[in-house]
Amino acid sequence: MSALKRYSRFKHLPRAVSGPLKCPFEGALLLQSSEFNKGSAFPENERAAFKLHGLLPPNIQTLDEQVQRAYQQYISRDDDLAKNTFMASMKAQNEVLYYKLLQTHLKEMFSVIYTPTEGDAIQNYSRLFRKPEGCFLNIRDQDSLEECMSNFGTAEDIDYIVVSDGEEILGIGDQGVGAILISVAKLVITTLCAGIHPSRQLPVVLDCGTNNEDLLKDDLYLGLRQHRVRGKEYDEFVDKFVQVARKRFPKAYIHFEDFGLHNAKRILDKYQSQIPCFNDDIQGTGCVTLAAMMAALHVTQAKIDDVRVVVFGSGTAGTGIADQIADTIATETSKSKAEAAKQIWCIDKPGLLLKSHGDKLTPAQVPFARDDEEWPTNKQHDLLSVIQQVKPHVLIGTSTKPKAFTEEIIREMAQHVERPIVFPLSNPTRLHEAQPKDLYEWTDGKALVATGSPFPPVEYGGKEYDIAECNNSTCFPGIGLGAVLSQSRQVSKKMLVAAVQALKARSPALDDPNRPLLPDVEDVREISVDIAAGVIKCAVQEGLAQQEGIPTDDAELREWIRAQMWEAVYRPLTKE
């Protein structure tokens, strides 16, 4: 049964996916609108009503037939970057066909429309540029922010904003104005994975300049040709954006993406108690990694109030994971967050983080710095020494140091715990701290593994093991969906814990310890329903939800959620 019939009882809701769409265009203008264009699938009655005769070939095709043709065009492209460019062009022409093609070939195309290929597209943004998409704000023109954002609708038109300043993009560093493409890509994933309406999204780049000398020397570079602005002027720019966005789109959820190490956490800390906002590099990575860890603890029967965790690489992702683990320990036990943080040992370039490192520590690292008395000067502070001393249950890598988890380190860990939990998460694959096949060999098949990129199954001892991928896309879209539909005033720590519990509940390893710790991305839309339901119920319980009429019955709540999740189907068009 189609969404049009399934959810007719909720057709009165502003984001309802049932019923016809009012279309303001006709003729050639309609064919140029990616939101309303159906191409060769326009039925005869709409061709007549919207003056399309003569503008289309006569044969009327189904969406499935269009997908078949589009896929043949897709696979004819020579390489992944060319495929990425083809998909971007399709998105600009016909959104429904774009998303239907992605859904039909999700596992094959995911790495093309997101990491790692999207990183190549971002690096080449100014050279591949064809048509602008999103909102471009620059620090040298702050007085025009309200005028710029007024181009994207009224107060009721935008649900979800992704904003980046481009300083730390997908492991490839400072990409300046090219960051608009990471905002676009994240929003594609929110639609694909959680049904956030593509017409109700806004990708934004905050152009503060760039410290990428290659871009500054490139005559074709489209961003501000200057080094990055720091300090007070930068903070005022970010604050002005937030205030203007909230004024113009008061119901919008703001997702911060790929900000630099020294800005990401402090920006999140400043605004998370004021507005509904989220940082995927910190909170999304933390949530999905924690869900995998919780599933692994279920397999090993270890208790969260006793778990010992070593995080190798204490940048935005590493400290975000540590923070999420500490929050969950504090939520699930009677411990304070400071006590919970003592169960986590963070290592970065200087070695184990110590309080004596003082102002060398970032604000995000400070809560996890250890007392120097624990580690006298005669002790080594490297990873192997920490493993020998701490005897951790969990080792997490976010260092971008390839092969950092050596055989000696993993075998040392395996001496002290029955089933080592090892997550080499650095992206892309070439930067992983260890290969899954090595982890199984070095632990005699006892390791519980999750990675930051997709890996093929590993054969060991006559068995085949699928490798779980800590893919944020299984988590952050559902959190955003729950926040948007509940109109929550903020995204609380308990809401994030609810998201983690919902994702953990979908772990295949809960039923079979030899199966992956996390569900496959192909199941992500139903996972997003589960996460959104948990987030919404928590928002209601905490008094943060502002949306009226949220169902209290679990089954009805899930139907209410699904009824507002955009689907890649052609809906009937009516004249506006």
From TrEMBL:
Malic enzyme N-terminal domain: residues covered: 91-272
Malic enzyme NAD-binding domain segment(s): 282-540
Amino-acid positions noted as binding a divalent metal cation in the UniProt annotation, renumbered to this chain: E257, D258, D281
InterPro entries to which the protein is assigned, alphabetical: Aminoacid_DH-like_N_sf, Malic_enzyme_CS, Malic_N_dom, Malic_N_dom_sf, Malic_NAD-bd, Malic_OxRdtase, NAD(P)-bd_dom_sf
A Gene Ontology cellular-component term: cytosol
Pfam families: malic, Malic_M
Cofactors: Mg(2+); Mn(2+)
Keywords from the UniProt entry: Metal-binding, NAD, Oxidoreductase
Annotated binding of (S)-malate, by residue: N427, N471
Active site: Y114 (proton donor), K186 (proton acceptor)
Catalysed reactions, as listed in the record: (S)-malate + NAD(+) = pyruvate + CO2 + NADH; oxaloacetate + H(+) = pyruvate + CO2
One annotated GO biological process: malate metabolic process
Cofactor stoichiometry and binding remark: Divalent metal cations. Prefers magnesium or manganese.
GO molecular function, one term: NAD binding
Family statement: Belongs to the malic enzymes family.
UniProt cross-references to PANTHER family, sorted A to Z: MALIC ENZYME-RELATED, NAD-DEPENDENT MALIC ENZYME, MITOCHONDRIAL
Protein name: Malic enzyme
Organism whose genome encodes this protein: Penicillium canariense
